[in-house]
Amino acid sequence: MSHTNGNEKPVWFITGCSSGFGRDLAQYVLELGYGTAVTARNPNEVKDLAAKKGALSLKLDVTDQSEIDAAIKAAEEKFGSIDVLVNNAGIGYFAAIEESEEDQVRRMFEINVFGLSRMIHAVLPRMRKLRKGFIVNFSSIGGLRSFPSVGYYNATKFAVEGLSESLWQEVEPLGIKVMLVEPSGFRTDWAGRSASESKRQIEDYAATAGKWRAKVRALSGKQPGDPIRAAHAIVKAVESPNPPHHLLLGNDAYNGAMLKLEELRKEFVAWETVSRGADFPTEM
After folding, report:
1. pTM reported for the whole predicted model
2. InterPro entries in the record, alphabetically (predicted)?
C-alpha cells in the first residue's frame, strides 16, 4: 500500500491495545518498524509497548469525543498522518435476549458501534484529502451468524458489518480501503476480562443461552485461534495488492461462514417463488 505520510513505512493507529488482538497487533507492527499510535483507556497498561521504537502511547476512550480528537491530533502531529486505522476496541456481554439489561446493552453499543463510528469520522477528513488510507474494523464470526447468549453482542457486530459495507462503497472511489476482520475463538481474554454477563438468568434458557455461555467461558485461554498469527494475517491482508473486504480468521470462522452461506442459499431457493411473487406483475 502507498503511505500518506510520505515515509517508506506506514503509520498505524490501533484502538484497544491494553489486551487481546490490539496488543498483539501493536506489538507486531512495531516489530516491523512502523510508526504506531498505541492507545488504551489506561496508558499504564501499554507502558511496555510505549517504550518501543516508533510507538506513541495515547490515552483513548472511544466513547469520549474529546479524547478521540486529542489522540488523532497527537498522532498526526507526531507522524504526519495516519495510514491505517484499526478499530479494535470493544467489549462483550453474555445474556439471553430476555435476560439482557438495557444499560449494559447500550454501553456495549456505545463502545462497539458508536465508538468505532466516531473513530471513522475522525480520520476520514484527512484520508479524503490525501485520497489514501485504510480502515480496519473488527467484527466477528458473530457479525455473520448469531449464537445464543450473545444476541446483543452479535447485534453490535452485525451493525459494524452493515456500516462497513456502506463505507467501502462510499470511500473506495476516493482511494480509501475498508476491511472487516471476522475472528472465531482466539486466545485473548475476551471471554474473561472483556465480556460481562447479566445478573439475571432465567431457567428456561439454561439449555440454550446458559449452555453456550458456560461453553465459551470454559474455553477461555484454550481457544484454537492464535492472536499472533492473526496479527500477521491482518498485516498481510492490509498490504496485499487486492485486500479482502471480509477477512475470516480461524477454522471455526471459515467453516461457520460457509455454513451460513449454505443455509441462506437453501432457504432463499425454497422460498424463491413466494419472494419473487411479492412484486407487481410485470406487463407483457
Report:
1. 0.93
2. NAD(P)-bd_dom_sf, SDR_fam, SDR_oxidoreductase
Q: Write the CATH number for 253.
A: 3.40.50.720
Determine, yes or no, domain membership for 281.
no
**121, part of any domain:** yes
Task: Name the domain count of the chain.
Answer: 1
Q: How far is residue 243's CA from residue 251's CA, in Å, rounded to a whole number?
A: 20
Residue among 157, 164, 177, 184 flagged as catalytic: 157
- Concerning whether 129 is annotated as a catalytic residue, the answer is no
* 45-to-17, 50, 66 alpha-carbon distances in Å: 8, 10, 21
In whole angstroms, what is the distance from residue 178 CA to residue 244 CA?
9
- Evaluate if residue 193 carries a pLDDT over 80: no
Q: pLDDT, tens digit, for every residue of 82-133?
A: 999 999 999 999 999 999 999 999 999 999 999 999 999 999 999 999 999 9
Any domain includes 217: yes
Q: Which domain holds residue 35?
A: 11-272
Tell me: the pLDDT tens digits for 64-94? 999 999 999 999 999 999 999 999 999 999 9
Residue 89 lies in a domain: yes
Q: Can 157 be counted among the known catalytic residues? A: yes
